[in-house]
Automatic annotation (TrEMBL):
Species of the source: Rhodobacter capsulatus
PANTHER family tied to this protein: UPF0127 PROTEIN MJ1496 (PTHR37953:SF1)
UniProt cross-references to Pfam families, sorted A to Z: DUF192
Protein name (database record): DUF192 domain-containing protein
Gene3D superfamilies: Protein of unknown function DUF192
Length: 154
């Protein structure tokens, strides 16, 4: 039994590495299309195509005004240093799941189905370097939870 579990972990790691690469993430940060992120989800590897918000203006705008966010897509907010952050749903017409990710690339906490147009602050539990927003309900559907690793993020 242990052999099969170890083999499954090796396969999952190889699958994540094959789909996600640092060069693609770096290119996306320079405005060359969306980035591909992978998460070691409870239901298997998850691959997401994400827009990157790594300037103050991009982070302030986020997904406000968007009426559609297809499954498998999202936006990742990148901060220059780890910090505790708060998000809100001001002018955001669709529910979102927010995954707060620490400097090691692990999901630190998450908020599921944040209510559209709600100005109540949604805080990370601790210091984070990234926040990933995906369509509401996707975190549960994909088996995402705290402690899982997101790659690549540098």
């Amino acid at each position: 039994m242990f052999g099969l579990s170890a083999l499954a972990l090796v396969w999952a790691g190889a699958a994540l590495g094959a789909e996600c690469d640092r060069a693609g993430f770096a290119a996306a940060r320079q405005g060359q299309g969306p980035a591909v992120l992978c998460i070691e989800g409870a239901k298997g590897p998850v691959r997401l195509s994400v827009e990157i918000a790594d300037t103050e203006a991009e982070r302030e705008r986020g997904l406000m005004g968007r009426r559609d966010l297809p499954p498998g897509t999202g936006m990742i907010f990148v901060y220059p240093t780890p910090r505790r952050v708060a998000f809100w749903m001001h002018d955001t017409p669709l529910p979102l799941d927010m995954l707060f990710i620490d400097a090691a690339g692990r999901i630190e906490s998450l908020k599921e189905n944040a209510r559209p147009y709600d100005d109540t602050p949604i805080w990370s539990a601790g210091p984070v370097l990234y926040v990933l927003e995906i369509a509401g309900g996707q975190a549960t559907a994909l088996g995402l939870s705290p402690g899982q690793r997101v790659a690549p993020l540098d």
